[in-house]
Amino acid sequence: MSEYCHSCDRRFVHYEALQAHLRNSSSHYYCNDCNRDFPHYRALEQHLQMSAAHRPRPTHHCPFNDWSGFSQNDLNGHLANEHNYCFGCQRAFGAPRSLQQHLLSEKHSPKTVKCPLCSSLFSSLSAVAGHVESGGCPRGKRFNRTAVSNAIRSWERSVGAQNTYTVPLLTYNDTVDDIDVRDCYNAYYNCFFCPLCDKETRTAGQLQAHLDSSAHAPNAYRCPACSGQFVSLSSLLKHLELSACRDKQGRHLHKLVSGMNRLTL
Q1: 4-15, pLDDT tens digit by residue?
Q2: What is the pTM of this model?
Q3: Which residues form the signal peptide (predicted)?
């Protein structure tokens, strides 16, 4: 059966021939995408502008919700404004403050702070303190949280600022130091139990490591701005670096670390 073009009064041997005529003839205003012929150019132009079939489709999609945009810049703006996004880590945060704290973390900070013992470089003062308190410093393996605390207390006394950053010794609980792990062995269960939290370990060394950790450490430090208490110098410094107290006490951060220099004396 032949196909007929009413506008041109022409017959074509098959449908494909008619379609080719509609697409190529200057007498027709044809939409190739929709296979529709329009009576005049203005009708075709209106169709191209208004039809949903011809609207640009978003090419960039948010991985966290159903938002879509037309460029990478659009997507980046959405991620930054709506998801507090760290582009370096490809992580979203629940609040602007959380993102700010993340950007102040070691991962995004250059290593410019020197350990007073081994001269290794770290990205923050809290990282230096943690390095020494953990016994990880190659020139300070004999030091731990207690040694650092004693050094800070000594520094406070020397500058007339006793208990500015440390908790008074009268309230400092030394219960952990009085525990002998050999007395914590349970022959029936063939393991060691922590007398403070009932944590079970297979060896005395594992129990001692647990007791030496911050699990049961007393709060030895305090923030002079908010009176919050902390187990270690590194946790106090991190608080001062990242919290609202940073603006109030930031000028004292380096003074605190200078107290660790007494470890070398």
Answers
A1: 887 888 888 888
A2: 0.55
A3: none
